[in-house]
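Annotated sample (chain length 235).
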Amino acid sequence: MSPSSIGAEAPAVTLSGLGVRVAGRALLDGVDLALARGEHTLLVGPSGSGKSTLLRVIAGLVAPSAGTVALFGAPASAPGSVIIPPERRGVGMLFQGAALWPHMGVRETVAFVLARRGVPRSERRARADALLEQCDLAGFAERRAATLSGGEAQRLGLARALAAEPRVLLLDEPLGPLDAPRRAALLDMLHRVQRALDLTVLHVTHDPAEAARVADRILSLDGGRLVTDARSVRP
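Output written by the structure step:
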């Protein structure tokens, strides 16, 4: 069953008793969480608290050791198994440092994802260019990914994630490598895209004060457990 086939009442993401253990160590321990559709949630916590592991479980890159993941009401992961594979989850992920394919061009990067999704060759260029424009990369199509600045690379990483038409977007420290002006510009662009596409966003950040102005909710993990869940008070 695909996420798009589920009724409108289910949360975008539901985690129930979620646990991940590696070599006997609990990276996540009994996490219960529901993310509403269209919600922008910040996820904070000290290094090693399980933030990136949580994103990877939602993305289907890691199977939980305990508990379940549901996406829009559809069972997506169970203990020891990934029920819906990553490419069918409707989940996009922007990795820390963008994690681009440096040998590819900018348009080529986005078109590659479109090709994997079965978009006809005749449509790929126009659709890739539209995504690049949406991510403030108009005019960059012929550049190599390896030549981009940090902020440009993060915007290309976002365009690549959006090429899969996700309904949930996971952000793993997307602002970390940038200076203050570029962080503010990228955050504003992320907020604009999230609202335009009605995406559910789970956003790992080391600086909640900076990102709180666009967030609906702030979660805190510590030792693999959810310790704080609060509504954001925007400035």
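Annotation: The two ends are 41 Å apart (CA to CA).
Annotation: Residues 180-197 form the longest helix (18 residues).
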